Structure formats: C-alpha cells, structure tokens
Amino acid sequence: MGIFSRTRDIIAANVSDLLDKAEDPAKMVRLIIMEMEETLVEVRASAARTIADQKEMRRQIAKLEQVQSGWAEKAELALSKGREDLAKAALHEKQKAADLAQQIGHEIDEMNDALSASEGDITKLQAKLREARARQNSIVTRMESASNRLRMRQMYAGAKVDEAFSRFDLLERRVDLAEGRAEAASLGAAPKTLDEEIAELRTNDKVEAELEALKARMDKQEG
User: What predicted TM-score, i.e. pTM, was given to this entire model?
Assistant: First the structure.
C-alpha cells in the first residue's frame, strides 16, 4: 500500500511531518521518493495521452469541415436543379456535421483545461520531489555522522581499548625491567685507580711496539 492515495495527497503532504513520525526516516524518505517518481511518470503519461487524443480530435474536426463543404455543394446543386427538398436534406446533413465538430471542439477545450491542471500538478510534484531528495541527502549525512560518532565512542569507551592500554602498560613494565637489569650490572664496579690507568697505557704501548716489529719482520720475509 502506498503512502499517498493520489496526486493531490503528495502535493498537500508535509514531508517533514512524515519523516518526524517515521521509525526509520531513511527508509521512509526512500519510499516517498519512489512513490513521487511513479506518480510523476503516471501524470506525464496521462498528459501525453490527452495530447494525442486532442490531435486525433482535431483531425476529426478537419474531416467534418470537409464533409460540411461537400454537403453545402450538394445543397447548391440540388437547389439549382429546383430540388429544394434535396437541398434542405443536404443542409440538414451539413448541420449535423457542424454540430458534431462543435461538440468535439468543446471536448478539446475541456482537455486543455485538464492539461493546464496537469501541468500545474507536474510542477508541484517536481518541487515536492526536489524537497524529498534534499531531505534524503540530509538524512543520509546525519545518519553517517551519527554512526561515526557511535563507533568512535565505542572505540574509546569499549573493553578493547582498555585491553590495548593494558598491553601498553605491560610492555612498558618489561622495558623498565630490562633497563633496570642493565643499570644493576654496573653497580659495585670500582673505578680504576691512577696507577692502573697508567699501567694500562704502558701495556698498550708494548703491544703497539710488538705489532710494529711483527709487521717489519713479515715485510722482510716477503721481500
């Protein structure tokens, strides 16, 4: 069952009120747009049929005008031959064709009024459709924004975040322990005395001298 029962219902409808009362505004606005589009197609199709009917009726009037001309010629011919009775009969047929043409003309005028009304309805329907589409874009944007805010709140307030920060705390504790062991390893180590540092320098000098002597002997052997 449709939201609207006829074109006038759509034109008179307050889209905002319909959406405010809906449990699912996004779904409601989709249904509203769908029905408006279908109604717009139907109104245009009806107008197209009316225009086609008018064209056919105008062709009928043109044919009836030719019929009238034919009967008028026949009436003149009968009268010229002294057959007034035939002339009257011909004029009677001419009048019937004229009356029928006039009746069709009135029907065309009524169709023109209907077309004018349809044109107005189409304009109003298009305006309502634009309004509904604009509301749809707004609703979709708001729904996406609300969903994003909800996800962010769940991300910051949920158990997963607490679990992640607990892991960070555990990793930091492990780093603290590693740094503590490194610092503890250097505790209790007495600094070198002056004599020890000088003796180390002498030892280094002897090693350097021995290294140079070894290089020299190797050079001689190679030579």
Answer: 0.55
Residues 6+ away with beta carbon under 8 Å from 67: 93, 94, 97
In whole angstroms, give the CA distance from residue 135 to residue 129.
Answer: 10
The 10s digit of each residue's pLDDT in 149-165 is 666 666 665 556 566 66
CA distance 123 to 112: 17
CB contact at 8 A, 40 and 122: yes
Average pLDDT score, the chain? 81
Predicted local confidence at residue 203, as pLDDT:
81
Q: What one-character DSSP code corresponds to residue 23?
A: S
Q: For the CA atoms of 77, 79, 85, 90, what is the dihedral angle to 10 degrees? A: 40
Rounded CA separation 132/42 (Å) = 18
Better-scored residue on pLDDT, 177 or 35: 35
Q: Identify the pLDDT of residue 1.
A: 47
**Helix or strand or coil: residue 193?**
coil
CA dist list (Å): 204 to 142, 197, 199, 201: 79, 11, 9, 5
For residues 189 and 60, give the distance between their C-alpha atoms in angstroms, rounded to a whole number.
123
Domain positions in the chain = 7-157, 160-189, 190-223
